Amino acid sequence: MREEVSQSEAKKRFVDDPLKLERLADFEGSDEIISTYTDGPFTDLCKGPHVPDTSYLKHFKLLHAAGAYWRGDERRQMLQRIYATAWFKQEDLDAYLHRIEESKRRDHRVLGKALDLFMFHPYSPGAAFWTERGTTLINTINEYLRELQRDDYKEIMTPLLYNKALWEISGHWGVYRDNMFLVLDKETGEHDFALKPMNCPSHHLLFASKKHSYRELPLRYNTYDVLHRNEVSGALSGLTRVRQFRQDDCHIYLMESQIADEVRRLTQFILGYYAAFGLTASLKFATRPAERVGTDEMWDAAERGLREALDATGLPYQLKEGDGAFYGPKIDFDVMDSIGRHWQLGTIQLDYSQPERFDLSYTGEDNHAHRPVLIHRAVSGSFERFIAILIEHFAGAFPVWLSPEQVRVLPIADDLAPHAAAVTAALRAAGIRAHLDDRSETLNYRIREAETMKVPYMAVIGKREAEANSVAIRERGAGKKQEVVALDAFVARVTNEIRTRALSTAAPVGAAQ
RNA sequence: GCUGACGUAGCUCAAAUGGCAGAGCACCUGAUUUGUAAUCAGGCGGUUGCGAGUUCGAUUCUCGCCGUCAGCUCCA
After folding, report:
1. Are residues A200 and A321 in the same domain?
2. Fewer C-beta neighbours within 10 Å, C or N terminus of chain A?
3. Percentage of residues in chain A having pLDDT higher than 90
4. For position A430, which CATH number holds?
5. Can you give the distance from the CA of residue A102 to the C1' of nucleotide B60 in angstroms?
6. For the residues of A434-484, what is the DSSP string, one character each?
7. Is the same domain home to A312 and A367?
8. Which residues pair with A194 in a beta bridge?
9. CA of A120 and C1' of B67: distance in angstroms?
10. pLDDT at A309
């Protein structure tokens, strides 16, 4: 039951509760309506709304308990917080719990170990070790990005370590030094160097190293360099929150008049990239935050430019007032995975500030120096986090083009191993990541292992197949349903799926006995 | 970083009230030659995360450190 009370009445009711009194004191003198809710013997101070009484909450489950700081301040006392979830219908509760279960089943930390993709070691907390299979996964994604960016982008590599003078120019030294890894310079005895936490300053140094004509713009530098951010230890979590990572980072130097066109291109580029993984994205437009650099005129121009560009794409987007970066407005890409979870991945950020700080310029048509506008762009965010999302999105069962191992060749008996080796070689020659498992284990054992490792295709080779130069294909998850096809046809089918980046395996290639 | 829980073989997990630490899988050896999700037998494998303290004795109790997890905070 809701009741609106006066300031003094509220104070009287919660006289034994110092925390509630503190909260009430915040409203002193304001016209905030103070409300309480009562259910049975329990009365709480709350803005609401609440359900009328707990009979509405028949379908609930307690989830977990944890400490939480009073008002989110780590210097304040810790309160016990109990998490629970409640739904109007049992089915809804079940569906929600099922989704939690499903998330657990797909946990990239568990699958990463089971599928032999990566590991962590206490000697380098927050930094992944990538196994051969995991490295293959990264490289495959990387190759795809390189292909997409081959024509219009200039891929560069810049140092990882910089003198603090650079970070003073960029402004990181003052505000973000605590989150940077500092390195001792033995000649000065000071921590004068730091590992880069982002790429932009180094890109600006390269840009500024020579004169640029307006004809070169937009100039797009992209990189996959390693970055380090010294996250607090308690924040680390699997691949989603790390200290060392790589971004598919890009900085675009351009004229104001080119913003709309560029943003449209970038948006299409990013959405197309997600689609290759079966991910759909929604767009968010974030405007000037309260704490920001630059003049209002600059922000007006930047927001107008970005907004017009966004409108020109014809795509729907959500407005997030005040959520922009301190140096400029941005478009964020919110991706939804196969079980309906949302992840913020890509971003397009307009920046008038850094070109100023780094005194960047290009020579215009009028033969005068002009300040370029800067766009920061990331597609996957970090590779580490993106791979974590992909692992959970696919539950480890990657489409063929992404799979670290695409085909496992299984001879039925030892005497077929030489032929199976030749088949493996033929698959590899066609650019297929194929492995031979000719251990003298039973066929069932080896099939089980290939299924467990989520290899998309098993090519079983018995006497009949060896004689006909065919393979008996078993598809991941398809059980006993096998299909015997000529080796050539199988090669054609797999290479085609790889080339087209098919998300699911193709329909049977038809008769090829 | 803060609060709490946890850390046992490569992995998943048992057990131990302070008194010789165990299984399955993996790995190795041998036998088996397999037609679509675990063949059989034997073997190897541990200062119970690290370091101190208490104790006749610590894997167990205490303290510190490292890491992981759940949250909080943070995320340029």
Report:
1. yes
2. C
3. 61
4. 3.40.50.800
5. 37
6. EEE---SS-HHHHHHHHHHTT-SEEEEE-HHHHHHTEEEEEETT-TT-EEE
7. yes
8. A162, A182
9. 10
10. 85
Dihedral through CA A242, CA A244, CA A250, CA A251, nearest 10?
100
Residue among A20, A172, A203, A229 flagged as catalytic: A229
Mark whether A374 and A454 lie in a shared domain. no
Q: Is-catalytic flag, A89?
A: no
A513 assigned to active site: no
pLDDT, position A171: 86
- Whether residues A210 and A287 share a domain: the answer is yes
Eight-class DSSP state of A399: -
Q: Could you check: is the Cβ of residue A464 within 7 Å of any atom of nucleic acid strand B?
A: yes
Q: Which of A204, A247, A354, A406 is catalytic?
A: A247
Segments of chain A with pLDDT less than 70: 1-2, 16-32, 39-94, 96-97, 505-513
The verdict on whether A247 is a catalytic residue reads: yes
Note the pLDDT of residue A507: 45
Residues A387 and A413 in one domain: no
Q: How many domains, in total, are found in chain A?
A: 3
Expressed as residue numbers, the domain containing A468 is 407-499
ipTM of the complex: 0.92
Residues 6+ apart with CB under 8 A from A318: A282, A283, A284, A285
Asked if the structure places residue A166 within a domain, the reply is no
A414 burial (CB, 10 Å; 0-12 / 13-18 / 19+) is: exposed
Catalytic position from the list A20, A106, A330, A385: A330
The CATH number given to whatever domain includes residue A263 is 3.30.930.10
A229 classed as catalytic: yes
Q: Is residue A418 part of a domain?
A: yes
The Cα A506–Cα A504 span in angstroms is 6
Residue A374 and residue A309 share a domain: yes
